[in-house]
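Give me the fold.
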Amino acid sequence: MTILVTGGAGFIGSNFVLDWFKTSDEPVVNLDALTYAGNLANLASLGRDARHIFVKGDIGDRALLEGLLAAHKPRAVIHFAAESHVDRSIHGPGAFMKTNIDGTFTLLEATRGHWSGLAADDKASFRFHHVSTDEVYGSLAPHAPAFTETHPYEPNSPYSASKAASDHLVRAWHHTYGLPVLTTNCSNNYGPFHFPEKLTPLMIVNALAGKPLPVYGDGQQIRDWLYVTDHCSGIRAVLAGGRLGETYNIGGWNEKANIDIVKTVCALLDELRPDPAGPYARLITYVTDRPGHDRRYAIDAHKIERELGWRPAETFETGIRKTVIWYLANADWVADVQSGAYRAWVDQQYG
């Protein structure tokens, strides 16, 4: 038995692969294009582990996908591969359309061809698990109920629109062709191996370098925060027991304003790595808000708890402390991804 993971060298994908091997010996075929946010250093602890089969490639390469599916005959595809940064989508939406929409379409079609040729029992047990985001639901008013799985889609950025489109493709391939799909929509992840462009790692890295800590607008944008290994356990729960064609929201039950996240990071750094120049909060700098910035996201994760018994293991307080400690202990990883040394290595290894 084998699973195929797309985007398994990225932040969430690599954490999922590492977490998978803590509870299973089932091999993983890991397909990743190794764009700027994909990093094999995230998986260095696997070394020469024969259970981990890495393939550098793009989900838009139909021939590659068909070859991998035919050769490894996975019982499931877990689809993480995506462009995911809102700011990047504003400045360059084309890459998001190509990967998140066209790439998902190509993966669905290759998977459908593989699944259609399986024996009856294998066909019945096969799963295509699509990993998505709460951003497809749009923005919530301050006191509105949290997003449920039936909340209407109202994406407001090129990124969230591309993910919404991919969600609709997955749903359509189930209802039209019978492909056995599952979809999960998660809230904001944080934790180890997070590329330092997103809020939490950017604040940690900038603070340690004595650089400004840029906060959009008034900093009162609210998100639900989910520790990445909790997200991984939620995906495993849905993959194992989720109802076909259903969507499950995975959230951390941790609504926090962005400015509160920044201040929490600063306080932890004051405790764990004090700066002789003074408290890190002195570096907080308010900058012009980004276009179309959603004001609030909140996930109602009752469905996955009710049906599958899943709840997050980490509180925000335990998760953010683990995150800050990880970045303090892994300065070399941060330096490599920031310096371009990792990109040079990829070019050397893969041309």
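The chain has a mean pLDDT of 95.
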